[in-house]
Amino acid sequence: MSFIKNYLERQICERRQFLLLSAYGLGGMAVSSALKTKTARAAVQNPKIAWSYRDRTNPYWNSIVAGGDAFVRSLGRPSDSLINLINEGSSEKSLADIKSLLSRYGSQVALAADPNDMPNCRPVVEAVCSAGAYISTIWNKTDDLHPWDFGDNYVSHMTWSDVGPSEQTARVLFDAMGGKGGVVHLGGIASNNPAIERLQGLKNALKSYPNIELLAVQAADWDTQKANQVMSGFLTRYGDAVKGVHCASDTMAYGVIEALRAEAIEGMPIVSYDGNPQAVGLVAQGKLLATVFTNPYWGGGITAALAYYAATGVFKPSSEPKEHREFYGPATLVTTKDASEFKSKYIDSNPEYDWKSLWSFTSGPIKYKS
């Protein structure tokens, strides 16, 4: 379990380093006059490729950007040609960094982005499209925002259908609890699509387990240290009534495990989400009961590929069917029964992907509640 302690310490030490990384390629930029609306350009010869995301110290986002690096290298470019825009969980910084990038390179940008929260997606997309650049997004957008409403420049949006897999993890947890007792849930940022859906999955599972009591729900913002504090608070408030923990991400589960260790609590059933390498290892060891693998390495590479190949004119987004503009990514439940085999196949080394096979691992169009 030493990696969790090291991980907590590394988050503090590396945060300043990666804040500097977030400015790579953007240093000394002067924000120019307000962007003028431009028409979409059919093909960009050599676009700048950028990824805008939350936090490189987070294993999930590290895998996302590793996939982006792999795609960039597949083009014969060095990894450091990928521009990293790290928003540190701030939607304001996300938008400001993207506008700075656009002020320098204009329409010569192929951007992959998680806008950090749902409301921020629209201003991000509008800024990119006004510059005549290209963007593909993941995870967070509002239901009324669609790529096909922006011609070719808003290339695609990928999210993951989290309700079902989260319900599966909850059922694994409840069964391990013997179908009774109190459970707590640590969630992500309240306005994030995945946080909302993963909590809903837990609530769906509760309907089939009348003797399971949901003691508390609290956001820990996808953060290990905050999750540690939240779990410590749960233990102080509920004590022995807590019999299981449902985490909306692996990184929060690490904080939970450390909080339990500090109280000398062993064997508490815990489930999480994201399928980070460390988490899959913990599942294999029985320290976690389950996680859900969303293949962030592929997701990071293919999101960058979609923006790049649209920018360079390899395909025309507006000519594609809607299921190629908005779609679900893959999700796989990993439990103690199959974690070791899964780890050897997907974690110990990354599979080779054909980055031109743009929709090969998607799992259907996004479905909205009526």
Structure, described:
This protein is an alpha/beta fold. It folds into 2 domains: 13-160 and 295-330, Rossmann fold; 163-293, Response regulator (Rossmann fold). Helix content is 42%, strand content 16%. It contains 11 helices and 12 strands. The strands form 3 sheets. Strands 2-1-3-4-5-11 form a 6-stranded parallel sheet, with helices on both faces. It has a 4-stranded parallel sheet with strand order 7-6-8-9, with helices on both faces. The chain has a two-stranded antiparallel ribbon with strand order 10-12. The longest helix is centred in the N-terminal third of the chain and has 21 residues, at 2-22. The termini are far apart.
CATH architecture of the largest domain: 3-Layer(aba) Sandwich
Quaternary assembly: single chain
The N- to C-terminal Cα distance equals: 45 Å
Shape: elongated
Strand tally is: 12
Subcellular location: Cell envelope
Keywords: Signal
Organism: Acetobacter conturbans
Main location: other
Q: Which keywords apply here?
A:
370 residues, alpha/beta, Rossmann fold, 6-stranded parallel β-sheet, 4-stranded parallel β-sheet, 11 helices, SBP_2_dom, Substrate-binding domain-containing protein, Peripla_BP_I, TAT_signal, signal
Concise account of the structure shown:
The chain is α/β, with parallel strands linked by helices and 370 residues long. It is built from eleven helices and twelve strands.
